[in-house]
Amino acid sequence: MITNELVNQSIDYIMQHLDEEITVEDVGNCCHFSKYYFSRVFKAETGESIYAFIKRLKMEQSALRLRIEKDKSITDIGFDYGYSPSNYSSVFKKHHSISPAEFRKGVNTTCVHHPLYPNNLAKFKSFEEYDQQISIQVFDDFFVIYERHIGNYIDLGNNWCAFTEKYKNFFTGNTLLIERSYDDPSITSVEQCLYDICMTVDKRCSLDNVTTIKGGKFAVYRFEGFIREIFVAFQGIFNIWLACSGYEMDERYGLDIYRAVDRENMHVVMDLCIPIK
Which of 84, 102, 111, 251 yields a CA-CA distance of 20 to 30 A from 78? Predict the structure, then answer.
């Protein structure tokens, strides 16, 4: 868990400016520290240097866009992250061990290997089947207590148990439990996935680790099933539904809103929410 709130602020800054030429000094300045001091703090919390973190996110977020923005050229996507065509291809291949063109050609629209359960091969539903379970909704902003983690999604259950126990006195009848995910574990190493676990609270809450999750328009898929099946549902929404829906994902990140949890049987009802324009 990332416990330094300034590091969390710097990650938010990087996410919001990923399509710009961000320097280490820019990140330090946003937190009012010298780049040398803040670089040490950042690496101690995240395990990566600021430069490596920025470069990795550019490669992984651009790979996600190659997958879902099929009508946008590879050159334009690379340019959005500050790369010339030849440089983007070189850096992408070094990071992913495959060229951007090969990556895009290899996107599978019928099934997916599960990165958390490598022996599992799961098949996607049809566009029509996903579309029947998706509604377009507009959410207000969410004011939340949050904890940010870098690591394997398989640890989510234990992290949620610790989180809800720690903040049990803040629960009310209207409390929502929300996950905000930043990475696709079929692209990002499972040990480097970044995610927030959150619970809604009153805006008068004076804890340090509170933030606002921006609302807006979302495509909402009602998922009912076992926790291990959530990854496959998300992949199907991105690879099948979003690519053919006519909607575009915007700069916000996906949310999972829990509606019911059966921990004993590892079964949940939740809304998988994809931000759209």
Answer: 111
The domain defined by 5-105 carries CATH number 1.10.260.40? no
Cα separation, 78 vs 59, whole angstroms: 9
Residue 95 — pLDDT band, cuts 50, 70, 90? Answer: very high
* Radius of gyration for the chain, computed over Cα atoms and rounded to the nearest angstrom: 19
Distance (Å, whole) CA 179 – CA 227: 13
Give the per-residue pLDDT at 117: 73
- Cβ-contact 42, 52 below 8 angstroms: no
Considering the domain delimited by 132-275, tell me its CATH architecture.
Alpha-Beta Barrel (3.20)
Q: Which of 118, 115, 167, 117 is nearest to 145 (CA)?
A: 167
3-state secondary structure the chain: CECCHHHHHHHHHHHHCCCCCCCHHHHHHHCCCCHHHHHHHHHHHHCCCHHHHHHHHHHHHHHHHHHHCCCCCHHHHHHHCCCCHHHHHHHHHHHHCCCHHHHHHCCCCCEEECCCCCCCEEECCCHHHHHHCEEEEEECCEEEEEEEEECCHHHHHHHHHHHHHHCHHHCCCCCCEEEEECCCCCCCCHHHCEEEEEEECCCCCCCCCEEEECCEEEEEEEEEEEHHHHHHHHHHHHHHHHHHHCCCECCCCEEEEEEEEECCCCEEEEEEEEEEC
Q: Which of 150-154, 255-259, 261-265 has the highest mean pLDDT?
A: 255-259
